[in-house]
Design brief:
By secondary structure, the protein is mainly alpha-helical. It folds into two domains: about 70 residues; about 40 residues. About 80% of the residues lie in helices and about 0% in strands. Helix 1 packs antiparallel against helix 3 and helix 3 crosses helix 5. It is elongated.
Length: about 120
Amino acid sequence: MIYSPTIITREELPSIAKVLEEFLRKIRECELKLNSPEIQNQFEKETDVAKKRKFLDERTDLSILRVKLETAILEKIAARLKCLEQDLKEGIEGLNQAINDVENTVNILTTIKNVTGIIARILVI
């Protein structure tokens, strides 16, 4: 294996969330295809009843497990949101106040940075 002297920064690596979202998107695409008329018709023509049943069971399992995966992800985010709820609430209130004081652009930039920092901690970016 040849190692490249190029250094890859953390920002250049895809985040886990992006990778996961891409997998979920691809799974959803497969689900749509599995529910398409073309696939449906092909399995309806199938004379092997066990194969038909297996298709329906496997297709259902794929959908159920995708939803469980999405739910698990949301539960983790929800737990982090609960821990940082007060900070986020105060940050948003501060941002609204900064926005109302439109003349103080430095304060607006600072409070935006504070709120995005809290959100990043919730999402673990």
